[in-house]
Structures are given as C-alpha cells and as structure tokens.
Write a structure and sequence with these properties.
This protein is α/β, with parallel strands linked by helices. The protein is built from 3 helices and 7 strands; from the N terminus they run E-H-H-E-E-E-E-H-E-E. The radius of gyration is 21 Å and the shape is elongated.
Length: 157
C-alpha cells in the first residue's frame, strides 16, 4: 500500500497535470475523435482509433488523479526537523567506496519522471528516517547489507 504523503511541490505538479489533461488535452483529443467519427467507417480510420485510445488513457489518468488528490496529505517542512531525516528531506549520503548520492525523500506519487528522488516507501528512505548528520545507516538491498554515512540534510521551503 502506498503512503499518502506528498510534498507541496509534488501536490502542485499533480494538480497541474490534472488541469492540463482535463482543460487542455482532453478537449483537443475530443475534437479530433468527433471529426474522425464524422468521416464514416471508423474501423479503418487510424485517426479515430488512435485518438479514441488516447482519450481513454486521459480519462483513466484523470479518474486516478481525482481519486488520489483528496487522499494525499501535504507535508510542509517544520523547523523542528532540522538536523534529522524526515519526509521531504534533501539528503547527501556516502558509502565506504566514496560514492555519494543526493536525493529528496518524497511520496510515491512524486517519483515518476524525476531524478534524485526516493520514495518514502523505499528501503533506503526507511533506513534514513530519524537519523542525523554523521550517522551511519545500514540498508538491506538484494545484494546484501550496505552501509551509508549521512553527509548533509536540508529541507526545501
């Protein structure tokens, strides 16, 4: 089951996606489908077939967003979080080999089409929660246990 947490930025992005699909993309595709349907035989009309499929995809995504957005809880950074890893933290970690990773811990609805983010539901994020700078963290991976050290923690406002 997905966590229902989201950052303010992530919520804005999902709301913008909904609005763009519903108020811009769907009316455009609907016009094309209507025009293509008026041409006659729909079974051999590529414009009709393709855009009808696209319209179903848009409607499916809009239904999902309309159901999901009210379920989400927007989490704003709080001054008491400074110095520890919590939801929304921008974390830099390093392993024994000197490899560093920098990412933000976000909700599962925010990880698509974004780099440098990790879902709160991921093992890495779960292991980091509540830790502070200079703490070592053991993360269980399919290859075995890995140790990471926290170099920095910050929050976007």
């Amino acid at each position: 089951m997905k966590t229902n947490l989201i950052t303010p930025e992530g919520y804005r992005q999902l709301q913008q996606e909904h609005d763009q699909l519903w108020f811009e993309k769907r009316p455009e595709v609907t016009k094309i489908v209507t025009w293509a349907a008026s041409l006659g035989d729909r079974s051999e009309n590529a414009d009709y077939t393709f855009n009808k499929r696209l319209l179903r995809q848009i409607d499916r995504r809009v239904r999902y967003l309309r159901k999901r957005l009210p379920e989400l809880k927007i989490v704003y950074p709080h001054p008491d979080q400074e110095g520890k890893v919590f939801f929304g933290a921008l974390v830099e970690i390093e392993n024994d080999d000197g490899d560093t990773l920098t990412f933000q811990i976000v909700g599962p609805d925010e990880i698509y089409d974004q780099k440098e983010v990790v879902s709160i539901d991921a093992p890495m994020a779960r292991a980091l929660l509540g830790k502070a700078v200079d703490d070592d963290v053991i993360v269980r991976t399919p290859e075995g246990k890995k140790t990471w050290y926290i170099n920095s923690i910050s929050y976007r406002t």
